[in-house]
Design brief:
The complex is a heterotrimer of chains A (379), B (245) and C (296). With 379 residues, chain A is mainly α. Chain A contains 14 helices and five strands. Chain A has a domain of 259 residues. Chain C contains twelve helices and two strands; from the N terminus they run H-H-H-H-E-E-H-H-H-H-H-H-H-H. The chains are: A mainly alpha (379), B alpha/beta (245), C mainly alpha (296). Chains A and C meet through helix 6, helix 11 and helix 13 of A and helix 4, helix 9 and helix 11 of C.
């Protein structure tokens, strides 16, 4: 709905999160969203400790999924190796954390390293890939190769010489302290002005912290894709060459988005390491890479909300199925292929558009019509 | 943008002795051509004459094997496409080159956001749409527009970038007679407002209605050049179009 | 004697590595080069072939028969996959990448569920010979011969037979081919099936040198992709050969000078560098170089 320039501040803020690049721009949607957030926030009050622990992990996965959604769904760059950045972020957090937890008393710099290291790594690889104008398929496969290579490297670091300060890479045992006197992988400890707050990965506080980070990432990305830069991203997705002829250095656009995506994946990896006090070479293997792609593809790569919903739902399904034996990966594969055949735009996105259509018809014009094409709701 | 601009001797675009070889095929075979500032210049030629390769080397999607391209007096031969666009060179590709999944207004955001604030864009977009005869279709999804409307929107996107030189590749392809006439008058109107326009066309009928200076390409070279009537009267040009040359 | 054995050993390894790449990639290159689909489930197709070959062998079939059975079985699996899934994703390069990756997950996980994590074996035939104190398996040389034979057969099939000409027409211009009476859907199915059959044969061949498990395919997939991607699609078969010649050389040198892990890494790293220098693959690069040479 068009907002007059003099609309109240909250309305204007809300309007900047709305736009044609996302589903769910109506007041009805935001009410549902608020209810969902409230329910998530209250979860630790009635759920068991185990459920809170798993829910934290689901939220961390959602951030990873959003990072892939940004580059694949909005900018058209598919990476089959998104877990590479997740892993680099996790290892960076762990290595810096082990070394700095005692002198600093907090993991602020470790968390920062978990975000910046993958972004810098992405800048190197992405710079090479995009500036040599590599085709999309090749980018997708090369990223998978990069991830597998990192995994291979980490696997053979069992030799005691692989230490960085007090951190020992540890090969198949995962990252750990170099000697008994070095500290273990630290849990997330935020320091500010002399105070330090520790978030135990198994606790409620950690869950709430991750929920807050997740909401911030979600809203930040909604703002980004609905800003005028978002049109540029979508234009790159639709036709790279045509976009360049409008005077945009598309290589730079791709590189920038790629680095941002890597930073978010790294954030997710850092939180994961803090959550389980554990990071392992298997984080770079085929399984985590394919899982991210499944979450995003099944939900609907072109919509942030759909991706979060599907990530949470598919994670829950996997956990439920685990009780039945080793069938969760098989089931996820079947879900992926079925979804791509039946709802190429994504299951959650298709459902969302359908619900939006019903609500929109009731209150003509306030919501959405078809999946990618909603009439300039933000304008 | 600070590089020195050589004296502009009236030619906004100058192509000098350009070769482009693909596999064993010489798509451009020593092509030289000048386009004067402020004119409408048509480039025609039978299939395989090198028209679309010429177009690609102008916009920077392909780099010539040898030879030079000058735009506004500077050498742009190896300049990437986006830099040429920033120098005021705007293009419409042969096929529909609007973003099909977006609405007309969202399409126009892409060229307009480079020079305008977000708040001003809807008004600017409406003005551009009115100029190409699509007033009021802002919220129409592009793939639901008719073929002619999509062609005009593609031209609209190109002029929204406010170019000095507009390159149109087959603007009349697949249009009805009525739509073709409308396209021709749109081109003349834009030219009256000061835009230099190069039209690359296969269809001589459309070129006739533009009544402009015309270059004929044949086997990757400039075959003939002159006002349209001279060209149309030229026996050799007729021959290559009838396929006997 | 010692030196000649060492040199022979290097040459032998080079051909062995090349056979590995050519065999693993042969079916993949066919599907990519002809249909523009990168089949991420190719390794799993090879796994199916390996299981079929081993089962047939243990049921008493002679090894060559078992390998043919592997090809036929994998080809049939290819028909099913193409009919059910792949055909909905032509001309959608990225989607086909994702959907075939999903298929690879389904096939390997289903195999794990049905067959369990236990492994199967086939004996390596033909024994060995020795040169300068080093012992070499004869079978590895047979692998190389088969790899070359398969590549030549594919080339001949598409170059000379009526099917090949119809297939190339269908890939070049589907509408025109259909208008001329070519059943393009059938052509696509058959091409995909032939690609899978090649994968099955490769799986059956490798089954005699490696242990077979549900994750058998994962050992081959990345290498096969690297070879194919590096070869490019401008002239797929020639590109494959160039890529295999080059990558096998890199691997042989790196794994002898350092260790097999470095050999593996150097393959991937050199492919990465090669792609950055030649973004559309070797075959495209060579075509362009030729074009430039002609210009002079």
């Amino acid at each position: 709905m068009p907002q007059s320039p003099r609309a109240a501040l909250p309305v204007r803020i809300l309007a900047s999160f709305n736009g044609p690049q996302t589903l769910g721009n109506s007041r009805f949607f935001w009410c549902c969203w608020l209810v969902a957030i409230l329910a998530l926030a209250l979860l630790p009050c009635f759920a068991s400790r185990y459920h809170v622990l798993t829910a934290s992990n689901f939220l961390i996965s959602s951030i990873l999924a959003l990072s892939l959604c940004l580059i694949w769904g909005y900018c058209g760059i598919l990476s089959l190796g998104q877990a590479a950045f997740f892993g680099v972020g996790g290892y960076a957090y762990g290595i810096v954390g082990i070394n700095l937890i005692e002198p600093m008393g907090n993991t602020d710099l470790a968390l920062l390293a978990g975000v910046l290291a993958p972004a810098a790594f992405a800048a190197c690889i992405g710079g090479l890939m995009f500036y040599s104008r590599l085709k999309g398929v090749y980018v997708a496969i090369l990223m998978l190769v990069v991830s597998l290579l990192l995994g291979l490297f980490m696997r053979q670091t069992a030799d005691p010489s692989y230490t960085i300060g007090g951190a020992y890479l540890g090969g198949m045992n995962g990252l750990g302290p170099a000697t008994a006197s070095d500290p273990a992988l630290p849990s997330l400890t935020l320091g500010l002005a002399g105070y330090a707050v520790e978030f135990d990965g198994r606790g409620r506080d950690f869950y709430w912290f991750v929920l807050g980070v997740g909401i911030a990432v979600y809203l930040g990305l909604r703002w980004l894709v609905n800003s005028s830069f978002g049109y540029l991203l979508v234009a790159c997705r639709e036709d790279l060459q045509r976009t360049e002829t409008f005077g945009y250095d598309v290589r730079l656009v791709q590189l920038g988005v790629f680095c941002l995506s890597a930073a978010l994946a790294g954030l997710s990896g850092a939180l994961y390491t803090a959550w389980g006090a554990y990071i392992h070479p298997d984080g770079f293997s085929v399984a985590p890479n394919i899982l991210v792609v499944i979450w995003v593809a099944v939900g609907g790569r072109k919509d942030l909300t759909s991706v979060v919903v599907s990530t949470l739902a598919l994670n829950a399904i996997s956990i439920e199925l685990a009780a039945w034996g080793e069938i969760s990966l098989l089931a996820l594969g079947v879900i992926l292929v079925t979804a791509m055949l039946a709802a190429p735009e994504g299951v959650a996105a298709t459902l969302g558009a359908w619900i939006g259509g019903i609500v929109g018809r009731k209150r003509a014009g306030s919501a959405t019509s078809s999946v990618p094409a909603r009439l300039g709701a933000a304008l | 943008m600070t590089a020195t601009v050589a004296a502009e001797d009236g030619a906004i675009l100058s192509v000098r002795d350009v070769y482009k070889v693909y596999g064993g095929v010489r798509a451009l075979n020593g092509l030289s051509l000048e386009v004067a500032r402020g004119e409408v210049h048509c480039v025609v030629g039978p299939n395989g004459a090198g028209k679309s390769t010429f177009f690609k080397t102008l916009i920077g999607v392909e780099t010539p094997t040898s030879g030079k391209v000058f735009y506004r007096g500077r050498d742009v031969t190896r300049m990437p496409a986006f830099r040429r666009a920033r120098l005021g060179l705007s293009v419409k590709f042969q096929n529909i080159s609007a973003f099909g999944e977006l609405t007309a207004l969202q399409n126009l955001f892409v060229p307009l956001r480079r020079n305008h604030r977000k708040a001003d864009i809807p008004d600017r977009a409406a003005a551009v749409l009115a100029r190409v005869g699509l007033a009021g279709l802002e919220h129409q999804e592009v793939r639901r527009l008719s073929h002619g409307q999509q062609q005009w929107l593609s031209i609209g996107l190109s002029i929204a970038a406010e170019p000095d030189l507009l390159l149109l590749d087959e603007p009349a392809a697949g249009l009805s007679a009525e739509e073709t006439t409308k396209t021709a008058s749109l081109i003349r109107e834009l030219n009256r407002q000061g835009m230099t326009i190069i039209v690359i066309e296969h269809d001589m009928g459309f070129i006739r209605s533009l009544k402009a200076r015309t270059s004929v390409l044949h086997y990757g070279r400039l075959f003939a050049q002159g006002e349209f009537d001279e060209i149309a009267a030229n026996e050799d040009v007729r021959r290559i179009y009838l396929g006997t040359a | 004697m010692e030196l000649s054995g060492q040199i022979f050993s290097w040459v032998y390894q080079y051909f062995d590595n090349m056979a590995f790449l050519l065999l693993a990639a042969s079916g993949l290159i066919l599907i990519y080069g002809m249909m523009g689909v990168i089949n991420m489930a190719h390794g799993e197709i090879m796994m199916i072939g390996a299981y079929i070959a081993a089962s047939a062998f243990h049921a008493g079939a002679p090894a060559p028969v078992a390998i043919v059975a592997a090809g036929v079985g994998a080809g049939l699996a290819g028909v099913v996959l193409e009919r059910l899934v792949i055909r909905h994703f032509y001309n959608q390069l990225l989607s086909s990448l994702v959907v075939t990756w999903g298929l690879s997950l389904i096939i390997s996980q289903a195999a794990l569920l049905i067959l369990g994590p236990s492994i199967m074996n086939m004996p390596t035939p033909f024994g060995s010979f020795s040169v300068g104190g080093f012992s070499f398996g004869v079978y590895r040389m047979v692998l190389f011969a088969v790899a070359v034979a398969l590549i030549v057969a594919v080339w001949a099939l598409f170059r000379f037979t009526a099917f090949g000409i119809a297939a190339r027409a269908a890939m070049e211009n589907p509408r025109m081919a259909a208008a001329l009476g070519v059943d393009t859907k059938r052509i696509y199915t058959l091409t995909f099936a032939i690609g899978c059959a090649l994968g099955g044969i490769a799986g059956g061949m490798f089954a005699q040198t490696a242990t077979i498990s549900p994750f058998f395919g994962q050992n081959y997939t990345p290498m096969a992709f690297i070879t194919v991607v590096m070869g490019g699609s401008a002239n797929a078969i020639l590109g494959l050969i160039y890529a295999a010649l080059y990558l096998a050389g890199v691997q042989t040198v790196a794994s002898n000078v350092f260790n097999p892990y470095v050999g593996y890494v150097s393959i991937m790293a050199s492919a990465l560098i090669a792609l950055l220098v030649m973004p559309a693959g070797i075959s495209d690069f060579i075509q362009r170089r030729r074009a430039r040479a002609m210009e002079r």
